[in-house]
Fold:
Amino acid sequence: MQITVDLDLCESHGSCVFAAPEIFSFDDDYLLYEATPDDRLRADAEKAAASCPVRAITVAAP
Structure:
């Protein structure tokens, strides 16, 4: 799985961090994320993408 975050769109709401803390986190005010997490986290990644109010997260097959 490949995760992409458009950091120009991201407004740091943090909903992705709550939905998938194994994938997303904050370092100060910057979003950090695992771009190629294990496929077992797909449901969490999709939940995080769906929860993003500005739709900055894309989840795709590798």
Notes: Residues 42-51 form the longest helix (10 residues). The chain is about 25% helix and 25% strand.
